[in-house]
């Protein structure tokens, strides 16, 4: 399959989405995408968490003790189709929010949803 650079531009986000599609992930199905923001203090993270909750965002907050320095991480869970333009728009919003609360946007990720034809045939047979 030839890469459509309008749908999958040649940058980090486009490359991840293109790889997801190449791996068989159905990008027309909504995924729970996780966006992360890192903070150096608990107070900064809690202030940002309150802001995001007021914006009706689903979040989690935890202390990451495995990094070289102790960080507080907010993960924002957004249920959406993994579309390039939407991801870029949300990233810009999260970057702005992170900066307003002295944090740093730390990227996004999601679980892949890969269906094999054999799995579908078995499911269809069970429904008959």
Automatic annotation (TrEMBL):
It comes from the Bacteria. It holds the Pfam family RraB. InterPro entries: RraB-like_sf, RraB_dom. Residues 11-110 form the Regulator of ribonuclease activity B domain. Gene3D superfamilies: RraB-like. This is Regulator of ribonuclease activity B domain-containing protein.
